Amino acid sequence: MSLAGRTLFITGASRGIGLAIALRAASDGAAVAIAAKTVDPHPKLEGTIHTAAAAIAAAGGRAVALACDIRDEDQVRDAVARTEAAFGGIDVLVNNASAISLTGTLETPMKRFDLMHQVNARGTFLCSQACIPALRRSPNPHILTLSPPLNLNPRWFRGHAAYTMAKYGMSMCVLGMAEEFRADGIAVNALWPRTGIATAAIRNLLGGEAAVARCRTPDIMADAAHWILTRPARETTGNFFIDEDVMRRAGVADLDRYAVVPGTKDFLPDFFLD
């Protein structure tokens, strides 16, 4: 039930949900590779790979800060090699990095379309491909991708087809790789929130502070990820987990601890869940 002694490679872990997952693992004494682009402070986004590494160390873990654009194959493979050199292997890959643009077909520039598909679908595929040789050597290997259950209801395509396609590309990686690597004992699962999570995407794109007040904190995703990643890999694969369902399975009946505003009942619903 612990990630002590394990090594996690987390994409986009300089802030938000990725950082929360890293800090939860660090509290067990895990080692974390932070593979993200933000090296210098951003005017609109908190955190860099260096501030994340410091926070992980303060939480009790070990960290290596890796400047890495997951669209670049050479950078990804170098980051994986540096992680193995630093910590002796990789036990967990968390595909957290994602790009979003909630725009219709005519309002989506091809540059933005390409970005979402390169980061979301291609990045997930590439990082998984690069980490699998190391994961095969782990006693309990996991790939956890932050993507939704596949849901072909047209409502999830109508307003933002490009984003939905890119996000479902991540989910299709889960679907395919879970079966492809089942015999290797590599668990491949997805995790998605039931409600909005208080991140920069909510604050900057989906309603500002009023929307954040109707969200849960990233801690619910971190605790759910921890529960999944401490399961036996051969017994826990091919699942599309929802955060609050995971926490109830973990024995947490009162989820109010995760509300940005305690007592909130009217949470902002997340995408892709009917």
Shape: globular
The side-by-side strand order for the widest beta sheet comes to 3-2-1-4-5-6-7
Structural class: alpha/beta
**What's the β-strand tally?**
7
Descriptive report:
With 274 residues, the protein is an alpha/beta fold. It contains 10 helices and 7 strands. A 7-stranded parallel sheet has the order 3-2-1-4-5-6-7, with helices on both faces. α3 packs parallel to α4. The longest helix has 26 residues. It is globular. The model has no long low-confidence stretch (mean pLDDT 96).
What distinguishing features does this structure have?
10 helices; alpha/beta; 274 residues; 7 strands; 7-stranded parallel sheet
Question: How would you summarize the topology of this molecule?
Answer:
Blueprint: E1 7-11, H1 16-26, E2 31-36, H2 49-58, E3 62-67, H3 73-87, E4 92-95, H4 110-135, E5 142-145, H5 155-158, H6 161-180, E6 187-192, H7 200-205, H8 208-212, H9 219-229, E7 240-242, H10 243-249
Parallel strand pairs: 1-2, 1-4, 2-3, 4-5, 5-6, 6-7
Helix pairs in contact: 1-2, 1-9, 3-4, 4-6, 9-10
